[in-house]
Amino acid sequence: MTDGSRLLDQMNDRSREVFRRVVEGYLENGEPVGSRTLTRTLSEKVSAATIRNVMQDLEFLGLLNSPHVSAGRIPTQLGLRLFVDGLLEVRDLGDEDRSALDATLGSNTDDVGGFLDRVGSALSGVTQGASLVLSPKHEAPIRHIEFVSLGADRALVVLVFSDGHVENRVFTPPPGQTPSSMREAANFLNALIEGKTLTEIRRDMAAAISARRQEIDSLAAQLVESGLAVWAKDGQVPERLIVRGRANLLAQESQAEELDLIRELFDDLERKRDIAEFLELTEQGDGVRIFIGSENKLFSLSGSSLVVSPYMNADRKIIGAVGVIGPKRLNYGRIVPIVDYTAQLVGKLISDRS
């Protein structure tokens, strides 16, 4: 259960309605919402004093904020996140918005660049926000790759292609990765690139991992057969070679040397597996996401929100994304279906062309 779900479970029906009304009022006009305003709109008839007590409880939970003494309340970033994740009512796409987006198809859909420019303009127009359009992912040969840590659970991969195109992709790195391990992975990959595409590099990494496994199996077989060592596998944990009778091993110098070599091969196998996972994540994209305020690390726009959706090709692979950037008090219920529909529109056109 998420923190947001726990907070929602702590609220009774009255608290939930007060919270929802405050957020909706703030999103609509950008102003703090006071207790007297709420007494006129709540489904349950209660006093302003009772509503003030509920709002104080919501403030204690970190969901509401009071910008001025004796003023009404506005949602905090945590409050907006809770509202978006648990209480947001997404509207149907309006006919006017649908028509404006459909008009981007125009007559010349062979020019993907021009089409994406029209999509960006249409998104800005219908949402009154800044649009974000990430063009289809390149499959040209790569000249350079770099991983940049954005935090404990976010990282950026910078891909420089041989034709000069530069692409940035955000992904969630495997647990336990550090900036230094990302630099090592990038250094390893840059030594292998040699004009290959990302797909070709992934294929080469899979082959290298398979070869390393065979090498380990061959070297370890004699130790296992002699009873001096045993393979241990535990669920999802990578296999380990447990050595028995260390005294006997040390007496046999050749087998001790083999064991050292096996250890080195295991270390190299794990490094290759980590790098292969980096490549796998690099080729994936985020699902439909809403970033609120400081969650929006990509653009470092204080107080902004980003609603973004990926689009896919005919093979259902994520190849790009479209989105809207605006103030935290975006009309999320209206913006989400607009962005979602735009992503479907772009994906359909890309799929039809291919």
From TrEMBL:
Heat-inducible transcription repressor HrcA C-terminal domain location: 116-336
GO terms of molecular function: DNA binding
Keyword set includes Isomerase: no
GO BP terms in the entry: negative regulation of DNA-templated transcription
Domain of life (superkingdom): Bacteria
One Pfam family, short name: HrcA
Keywords on record: Repressor, Stress response, Transcription, Transcription regulation
Cited Gene3D superfamilies: 3.30.450.40, Heat-inducible transcription repressor hrca homolog, domain 3, Winged helix-like DNA-binding domain superfamily/Winged helix DNA-binding domain
HAMAP family for the chain: HrcA (MF_00081)
Function: Negative regulator of class I heat shock genes (grpE-dnaK-dnaJ and groELS operons). Prevents heat-shock induction of these operons.
Family: Belongs to the HrcA family.
NCBIfam families (UniProt xref): hrcA
Protein name as annotated: Heat-inducible transcription repressor HrcA
Upper classification of the organism: Bacteria, Pseudomonadati, Pseudomonadota, Alphaproteobacteria, Rhodobacterales
The encoding gene: hrcA
